[in-house]
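Standup notes
- DV: blocked on the single-chain target, sequence here:
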Amino acid sequence: MFNFITKRPLWINVLFALFLLFLLVFVFLASLSFLTRHNKKLKIPSVAGKTLNEATRMLSQQGFEVEIQDSVYVDTLAPLIVTRQFPEAESEVKINRTVYLTVNRAVAPMISMPRLMGSFRNAIAILKQFGLKLGDTTYRPDFAKNSILSQLYNGKEIRPGTKVPMGSTISLVLGSGVSNTNLIVPDLFGKTFEAALDQMQAMGVGLLKVVDPGVSDTMNAYIYRQNPERLSDDGKVNRIRPGQLIDVWLSAEPKHKADTTSDSPITPQ
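- DV (later): unblocked, structure below
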C-alpha cells in the first residue's frame, strides 16, 4: 500500500511532504478571509427609540448579536424602549459584532423618600436629584416664610425613608409667613398635646413644646402651662396671629391650675 513511498528516495518524500504542508497552509489562509468575512463590514442601524423586540429583530436580520447592557428609568418613555446603543448608529463594524443596548425599565424602581428641608428652591433640587416630580404647592401660616412644612404623597404626609416609586409626584406645604389676622389665644391648659396640636394647626398657629422629665409619650402628655396665656396680667384677652408660636409645657399626668409650677428641670424640644 505504501510502495509508492518506500520505493522513492527519502529526499523526494521530504520534498513531497513539504509541498503538501505548503498547500494546506495556502488553502487555509485563502479560505480564512471567506470564512471570517474579513473584509465584510456593515453599518449599525439606529435603534434608539424603538422597542426592545423591534431593535433585536432589526439587528439580528442584519447579522448582529444583541445584548442588554444596562437599564434606566425615564417616566416619560414607554417601557422597554431602547435609550442608548453601543457601538453607536452608523458605525462600521464586522458582521456578527455584538450591539449592546440600554433599555427603559418596565417597572419604576423603588427609592427612599428624602427629607425635604429648607427653602422651596432646595426642595425642587432634591426632588430632581431623586427622580421625583413636584406636585401641588399649598401654603399655611408659619413664621418661616416659604420654608417646607410638610411633604405629601397621594394627599398624605410621607415620612423620609418611606419607599416610593421613582417618578412619583410629591406635593409640598410651605410657610406663608405671619398673617395679619388677629386671633384670640385659646386656653390649652389640661389638653393633651395631640388635641392642642390639632386645634392650633386648624388656626395656623404652631406649638413649641417643653417636656418634663419622665414624659415618654409626647402626643398624650398634658399641657400645664403656656406662653402667651389666654389672659394677660391686667385681665385682657391676648391675641396671636396665624404663623406665630405658642410655647407649651408638658407633663406625664394632668395637673391642677394651682399646681402648675414645677421645680424639676425641663428639656426644650
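- Follow-up: Confidence is low (pLDDT under 50) at residues 260-269.
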